[in-house]
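Box 3.1 — From sequence to structure: AraC-like DNA-binding protein
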Amino acid sequence: MELIFEKDIQDSFRISHFMHTGITGQIPERLSYHRILFVEEGSGVVEIDDARFELAEKTLFLLSKGQLCRFPEKSTITGYELCFGDCFWEKAPGSASNCKAVLFNNAAENQRLPLNDSALSELNFLFRSLHHEFETRDYVNKLDALAAYLKIIMIKIANINAEAGAGFDTHEKQAYRAFIELVSRKYREMHEVAEYAGELNISARRLSDICKRCAGKGAKELINGQLVAEAKRSLQFSSQPVKEIAYHLHFSTPEQFSHFFKKNAMMSPQDYRARFVNFGR
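Predicted structure (token representation):
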């Protein structure tokens, strides 16, 4: 299956305004930058990794670098597309780092966020202001100003995401965020809930309860989700043998990896890869 890679973006930052803009992209694109797609009005479909979403109005899509994105049919969007790299994010004040970690370290769990009218209005103002600043003539410290806008937008989106999971206390939120950040860094070598619980100084049961309250999924399910997503990307877009993928993800044997993958993806690694080898033939 053919694949294209996202082109370099000047200064690792870009915001584009769409006004009933038609978008097509049959070939999957491997993202090199984090992306926020703010859809005020839309029609069509976007595919992100293995998931398929309608481009409905009043919706945010969060895509992390490394994910695969394509528009399998002609789609129309009114709204904004915001792209930024990790190096640009470093310009943003550190107080917003937790917001980025929660939203993008496990983007598949926050891929689509519906917006109410109030959130839509607030985000429209912020994105419009950022786009205006982006389009102005360059000046000293312009990138710092853009990073400040990005921080505000990220905090606002994190609050929208938190409201969707309202009902758990601040301590639980902090523990969940710490867990998600840890998973994003260590999921390849750490597969067990108890390992993460030990690093977070809480019990495995407590950690799983927190995840269920915050994300609607247990801790083990979130860990496995990261592993399966990485395995699928490797099977689909690399020529690595299954054995190498298994060892890269720290499974003891290829057989253990195959059993894990089949249990979670409902097919063997070989069958999953074959789906894409034969794609379009």
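Summary of the box: DSSP finds eleven helices and eight strands in the chain.
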